Amino acid sequence: MSTHPPAAVEQTEPRSYGGKTAEERQAARRQALVDAAVHLFGEQGFATVSIDAICAEAGLTKRYFYEAFASREVLLSAAYEAATREYMQSILAAVAPHLSDARKLVRAGLQESFGFVKRNPAKARLIMIEAMTVRSQLGNMYGERYDAFVDLMLQFTQPFLHGPKVPNKVLRVMAKSAVGIIIHLCQSWLANDFKQPMAELVDGTERVFAGMGRELGVKGYA
């Protein structure tokens, strides 16, 4: 019988290159492809952008494209989801300091809604314009993202409702109308290369929302 102690099990760690593991490098490549797709789909349209063009923009080969995405359509969904998530998060950050003041909340939300579009035209075109033409490729995601914006609108509105009770279904129609107004104005603004001053868009939309606020008995408007 051997009297030698059992050999210690060698602990192996993930190999890293440049301080990054294989998983981290794979995630970085995936993000580079998503960023490239957001830019190209927003600037040129999904129908005209090839996988080769996306890879060139990202500085990657097709091998890495297919490592991350099964098809161009799958990448489209990832790009749309990333752009809409960033848009929503920017609005959430803008209104966070004003959750107890309806007027300030609405103004901050509108300023950021239009401000994000002005600062990020490619992302905005993907969200507001291109998504309309590729709804079939996006599947349920288009409706889900639209509903998420409606839910956000309702989330901010509910705490201020102190007037007559409005049925939830009616309230949701009003929220959908509010989201639709912003989308339509952004579409026109993008199509006209931002010729109209943003202040006019904010002021005009704020007045529309003020009318809804009075109808709902929102404190600060009623």
The run of helices and strands is: EEHHHHHHHHHH
Helix content: over 70%
Beta-strand percentage range: under 5%
Which superfamily, in CATH terms, is the homologous superfamily of the domain at 73-216? Tetracycline Repressor, domain 2
Uncertain segments: 7-14
Summing up helix and strand content along with how strands pair, one would put the structural category as: mainly alpha
N-to-C terminal Cα separation, in Å?
A: 91 Å
Shape: elongated
Please tell me the CATH architecture of the domain at 73-216 by its name: Orthogonal Bundle
| Mean pLDDT over the residues | 90
Radius of gyration: 23 Å
Structure at a glance:
By secondary structure, this protein is an all-alpha fold. It is built from ten helices and two strands.
Features:
two-stranded antiparallel ribbon, 222 residues, single chain, Tetracycline Repressor, domain 2
What does this structure look like?
By secondary structure, this protein is mainly alpha-helical. The chain has a domain at 73-216: Tetracycline Repressor, domain 2 (Orthogonal Bundle). Helices cover 71% and strands 2% of the residues. The protein has helices at residues 22-44, 51-58, 62-68, 72-95, 102-119, 121-133, 135-138, 141-157, 168-191, 198-216; strands at 16-17, 20-21. The protein has a two-stranded antiparallel sheet. Strand 1 and strand 2 form a beta hairpin. Helix 1 packs across helix 3 (62-68) and helix 9 packs antiparallel against helix 10. The chain is elongated. Mean pLDDT is 90; it is low at 7-14.
